[in-house]
Amino acid sequence: MATYKRVVLASRPQGHVVPQNFRLEEVPVPALKEGELLVRNHYLSLDPYMRMRMEDVKSYAAPQAIGDTMVGGTVGEVVESKNPKFAAGDKVRGMFGWSEMGVSQGGGLVRLDTTDVPLSAYLGAVGMPGMTAWYGLTQINQPKEGETVVVSAASGAVGSVVGQLAKLRGCRAVGIAGGKEKCDYVVNELGFDACVDYKAGNLKENLAQATPDGIDGLFENVGGEIFDACLARMNPFGRVALCGMIAGYDGDPMPVYNMRYLLTMRLTLRGFIVSEHMDLWPQGLKELRELVAGGKLKFRESVAQGLEAAPEAFIGMLKGKNFGKQLVKLI
Ligand code: NDP
C-alpha cells in the first residue's frame, strides 16, 4: 500500500518550541472519490504564524488541534484528478500543511504558471509573504516619494519585499536585521539605502544615523527592543503597519516602553492579517509577479531537505537561522 509522511502537533510548547512538540507519521494514500484530486507537495512554507497556532490562546484563528497535521502553505503538482477543473500535471498552491501529499475537492487551490516564476516563489515573494509586504506598505504605511520607510526582519520573506517595494515608490528604505551578512545582503543585493544590525549593539544610535529625517512609515515585524527604538524615531503623523511581533512568539517576554510616541507624534498604528484582505490579492500578486518575472524584485530562500527536517528548520527560523524565505523541499 502506498503511503506518505506528515507531521502532526504532538503537544503544546511550554516556553520555547522543542522537537518533541511534533510527531512524524506515515499514513496511507487514500483512494480518490469523485470530485477529488491528489497533490504531491514539492515545497512546504514555514511561517512564524504557525508558532502562535501551536498555543491555545485567543487569536485571530483557532488553535491547531493536537494530533492534527501542522497547518501550512504548500506548492506541488496534481498527480491524480477526479475533478474536472484540475488535471494531472497542474502545478497548484494549497494549504495541505506539513505533509508530502494532500487530497482536495479543489476549493482554495490556485493553479500556478511557472513559465517565468519558479514554483517555490509562490510561497514567498509571489505568495502570502509578498502579499503581506504589499498590503502593509501600500494600505497602511502609504509612503509618499521621498519619505523614509523602516522595516524589521529586513532580510526575511516579508521584510525583503517591503524595502524593495518602498524603493520602487521613491522612498528611503531602511532595514533592521540580525548580523553583518544579512545587513550586507539587504543593502548590496536588495538595494535598501541602509540596514542596521541590531545584534551589533548601539541600536538607537545606529538607527538614528540611518534615519536622519526620522521615520514616516514603520513596517513592524519583530516587536520589543527593535519596535521601541523605531517608535522613538517616528515623525509626526507617521504610520505603523503592525505586521508581526516575532520576538515574543516563542515564549520570551517582549516589553515595549515607548508607547507615548503614539500620542506625542499623533501616530496611526494598525495591526492586520493579510488573509482577511483577499479582495486585494489579485492586484498585489499581479504587481509582485511582474516584478519577480522581470528580475526587479529579488528574493532569497533557505531550503531544508525533507519533511523530517521541518521541525528543526522551524525552530531555527524563530531564532533567525533562516536567511530569506524558509522552505522545506519535499521531493
Ligand atoms: P522571516 O523570513 O523574516 O523570518 C523570521 C526572521 O525574524 C528571522 O530570520 C529573524 O531575522 C527575525 N527574528 C526572529 N526572532 C527574532 C527576535 N527575537 N528578535 C529579532 N528578530 C527576530 O519571516 P517572515 O518574513 O515570514 O515573517 C516576518 C514577520 O511578518 C513575522 O513577525 C510574521 O509573524 C509576520 N507576518 C504577518 C502576517 C500578517 O498577516 N500580519 C503574514 C505573514 C507574516 P534576523 O536574523 O534579522 O533577526
Question: How large, in whole angstroms, is the Cα Rg?
Answer: 20 Å
| Annotation, overall tally of beta strands | 15
Q: Distance between termini?
A: 19 Å
The structural class is alpha/beta
Helicity range: 10-25%
Return the CATH topology of the largest domain: Quinone Oxidoreductase, Chain A, domain 1
Q: Characterize the largest beta sheet: strand count, sense, and whether it forms a barrel.
A: 7 strands, mixed
CATH hierarchy: architecture of the largest domain: Alpha-Beta Complex
Shape: globular
What number of domains? 2
| Ligands bound, unique | NADPH dihydro-nicotinamide-adenine-dinucleotide phosphate
Task: Give me the number of helical elements.
Answer: 9
CATH homologous superfamily descriptor of the largest domain:
Medium-chain alcohol dehydrogenases, catalytic domain
What does the average pLDDT come to? 97
Strand content: 25-35%
